[in-house]
Amino acid sequence: MSCFPLIHGFPNGHDWTFELVRIAEYGHALDAGQRPPYWADNLYGGYGSPIFLFYAPLFMLVANTFAAALNSIAWGATATLVLFTALAAFFVVHMMRSALDAHDALSHVTARIAAYLYVLNPYLIGDKLLRSANAEFAALCVAPLAFWGLFAVRSMPRRGALL
What per-residue string of b and e applies to 115-143 under the rule 16 or more CB within 10 Å gives b? Predict the structure, then answer.
């Protein structure tokens, strides 16, 4: 259900073509040995840009991996958005379910975080479908996991720190 907007009429954002170019440039930077990538040689008329210093790398790294596997940058980017949307939905549902099963202070905090992320959902859908701000979208999708890890540090220090 959370991925339906991605399947029907997607992509439709005004920045989508630039996002595909950024993913291609990210792959070229990796191929050129940049670890981590920082410079996109072919952007802005061949003058280049330090664009990877300004965008979080998670979306482009995963999209580039899917693009290589699917032999298509557009399909790789789309598969990445579907994956992040599904993961965000899973983590929010998991957080809400664990909050309903427990009656301690952590469960109330977890329920509040899940509610905040649910309230952010219209922004998330608008951001990925209209602006194609995929680096920000990926960060918001993994936010439930980061919050869960932060609050799990008390009871499970190693697992919480890893998350």
Answer: eebeeeeeebeebbbeebbbbbbbebbbb
Q: Provide the CA 57 distance to its chain's centre, in angstroms.
A: 10
First CA to last CA distance, the chain: 26
- Contact between 111 and 95 under an 8 Å Cβ cutoff? The reply is yes
3-class state of residue 49 by DSSP: strand
Instruction: For the chain, give the mean pLDDT.
Output: 80
Please report the DSSP string for 108-143 in residue order.
Answer: HHHHHHHHHHHHTHHHHHHIIIII--HHHHHHHHHH
Cβ(151)–Cβ(104) below 8 Å: no
pLDDT band of residue 11 (cuts 50, 70, 90) is low
Amino acid occupying residue 14? H
DSSP notation for 2-48: TTHHHHSS----TTHHHHHHHHHHHHHHHHTT-SS---BTTTTTTT-
pTM of the predicted structure, to 2 decimals: 0.74
Structure tokens, 13: 């954002």
